[in-house]
């Protein structure tokens, strides 16, 4: 430990002066966290939308950037977050950290599509999500596609019938996904076996050729 002329003890090598207590020190600590985020290969993050916003103050306008990011692990977990900062990289980092804190798991059928059709609404945003057979791919556009790609969905048909605002579309999609129920959850709630629930769902398809 070294001593300053005033007698205060500081770490050797001038570490206190290098880190500082102002905004420069915050940027340094943010850079360290950003390095950890880059080394974390478990999650997939996609930048959905970035917007420049302005705040009117006495001296004029202060410009900042607002970012919307979707994060998932390609295995059924997904989350979204928004962040605002004076610089684009910092706004994206804040949004990514927020998305990781708000992730939730969605049960998928065969790990590739939905168990049943869904409808979601948030504000003026309205979306319809439909399960699709293998080989269909992701038929969705804009923010909805980013949600499905990060979540790991491979076959789905989605349509937005309301607002095209990215925030409303993403939130409406997540509202719909949160209402997803799997056959295992339904069987546990009704006190039955999973085979009874799945078999009942497939019965009409088997009986259709006989009736024809």
**Number of distinct beta strands:** 10
Spans where pLDDT lies below 50 across 5 or more residues? 13-39
Would you identify the CATH architecture of the domain at 107-197? 2-Layer Sandwich
CATH class of the domain at 107-197: Alpha Beta
Mean pLDDT: 79
Radius of gyration: 24 Å
End-to-end C-alpha gap = 89 Å
CATH topology of the domain at 107-197: Ribosomal Protein S5, domain 2
Secondary structure: helix percent: 25-40%
What attributes does this structure have?
212 residues; alpha+beta; Ribosomal Protein S5, domain 2; four-stranded antiparallel beta sheet; 10 strands
Q: Can you walk through the features of this model?
A:
With 212 residues, this protein is an alpha+beta fold. It has a domain at 107-197: Ribosomal Protein S5, domain 2, CATH 3.30.230.10. 40% of the residues lie in helices and 29% in strands. The chain has seven helices and ten strands. The strands form three sheets. It has a four-stranded antiparallel beta sheet. The protein is elongated and about 70 Å long. It starts with a strand and ends with a helix. Mean pLDDT is 79; it is low at 13-39.
Give the SSE map.
Elements: E1 2-3, E2 9-10, H1 15-19, H2 23-39, E3 44-57, E4 60-72, E5 77-85, H3 88-101, E6 104-105, E7 118-122, E8 125-131, E9 138-139, H4 143-151, E10 156-160, H5 166-178, H6 183-190, H7 194-211
Parallel strand pairs: 9-10
Antiparallel strand pairs: 1-2, 3-4, 4-5, 5-6, 7-8, 8-10
Quick description:
With 212 residues, the chain is an alpha+beta fold. Helices cover 40% and strands 29% of the residues.
């Amino acid at each position: 430990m070294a001593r300053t002329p005033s007698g205060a003890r500081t770490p050797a090598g001038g570490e206190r002066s290098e880190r500082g207590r102002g905004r420069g020190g915050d940027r340094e600590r943010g850079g360290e966290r950003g390095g950890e985020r880059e080394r974390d290969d478990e999650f997939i993050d996609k930048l959905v939308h970035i917007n420049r916003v302005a705040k009117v103050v006495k001296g004029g306008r202060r410009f900042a950037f607002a970012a919307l990011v979707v994060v998932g692990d390609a295995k059924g977990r997904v989350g979204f977050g928004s962040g605002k900062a004076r610089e684009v990289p910092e706004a994206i980092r804040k949004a990514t950290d927020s998305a990781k804190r708000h992730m939730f798991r969605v049960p998928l059928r065969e790990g590739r599509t939905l168990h049943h059709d869904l409808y979601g609404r948030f504000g003026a945003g309205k979306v319809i999500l439909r399960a699709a057979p293998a080989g269909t791919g992701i038929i969705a556009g804009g923010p909805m596609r980013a949600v499905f790609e990060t979540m790991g969905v491979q076959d789905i048909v989605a349509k937005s019938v309301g607002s095209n605002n990215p925030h409303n579309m993403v939130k409406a999609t997540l509202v719909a996904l949160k209402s997803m129920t799997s056959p295992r959850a339904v069987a546990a709630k009704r006190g039955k076996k999973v085979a009874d629930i799945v078999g009942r769902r497939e019965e009409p398809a088997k009986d259709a050729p006989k009736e024809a």
